[in-house]
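Thread title: Can someone regenerate the structure for this chain?

I was given the following input by a collaborator and told the matching structure tokens would be attached. They weren't. Posting the sequence so someone can regenerate them.
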Amino acid sequence: MAQLLLLQEQEFHTRLQEVRRLMESQSTDALLISDNANIYYLTGRVFTGLVYIPVSGPVIFFVRRPVNLTGDGVVYIRKPEQITETIGLNLPARLGLELDITAYSTIGRFKAIFPDTTEITNASPLLRDARSRKTPMEIDMIRTSGIKQERVYRRIPHLYRPGMTDLELQVEIERTSRLEGCLGQFRISGDSMELYMANLLVGDNADTPTPYDFAMGGEGLDPSLPVGCNGTIIREGLSVMADVNGNYTGYMTDMTRTFALGSLKPLALKAHQCSIDICDMIAAKALPGTKAKELYELAEQYVREQGLHEYFMGHKQKAGFIGHGVGIEINELPVIAPRSRDILAEGNVIALEPKFVIPGTGAVGIENTYLVTATGLECLTNAPQQIITLE
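Best answer:
Regenerated them for you:
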């Protein structure tokens, strides 16, 4: 038998306390959590079942699978209707469900097992808010992912062979990542967001619009996954942008670097340096309490001053953000976008990706993952930032 709770007791209570603080501020009596990412955040493992969190009192872990978990609060159930039998008469007046991500039929089933007097509220924003401020343990796990991801990126130039396509190089990068310990899983928060282990873009494929709200697109190999590499041969004069999975611990870092055979044209070099400059400017100004939209405005103003706005965050199709939170999932809070209401807090982990698409060359720019500290941003992905020559 195995203990369900893999987090140390103090870590569990730290995370639980933050969730309950937000519950109290929103007058929520209880949460019923079913999403894998949120279950992992609260327990350190994934299981099929539900976590019931009252604003006070013991947490209950309703488990269906696996059948070998034990510990305080573990209750095995076959169906959700058994939940109220365990809760008894202490039914909540206001119950939070993950309405943003739970299937409509499942929500209906949850509603049916609680009385009509129970008000259902949306707990998804609350949980995203709680997860946005990382604990020291979470930060250590993200640091570890950053170190391992950096090792992989430093090997990329040596993986190239003349005549390779984008797919062939991507496969070699993915193999190297897996051997370094990458879990392979790419959890992405958001509607219909799909991606495999890496997004490798060569030349004008980076200018191909995609249905997904990513900073860069790409045609992909099949219409069923229209993003990323499409079989383009790597040639001199084309940029090679690598945005590779950084999940080595269950917590991710997000990093992009640009590679090339030989040199790229001056416009591409200027845009790439602009990307580095933007990251440096934001890293110095992104203090706790800073409005996320102000950081976007800072970047956009600098891009306009450099005469590069036509190519910023896409050319044919533009992304509406330059950064996002990172943790258990990609696209966590805060979001660095023009209409963002987020305010930076110490312990946030964000990925900045001010990228450009130059027609005839491809995508240039960098992406780094940063920790928000009291004095600014600390970079957690420290691979070389200049355009890197493929050997």
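The chain has a mean pLDDT of 96.
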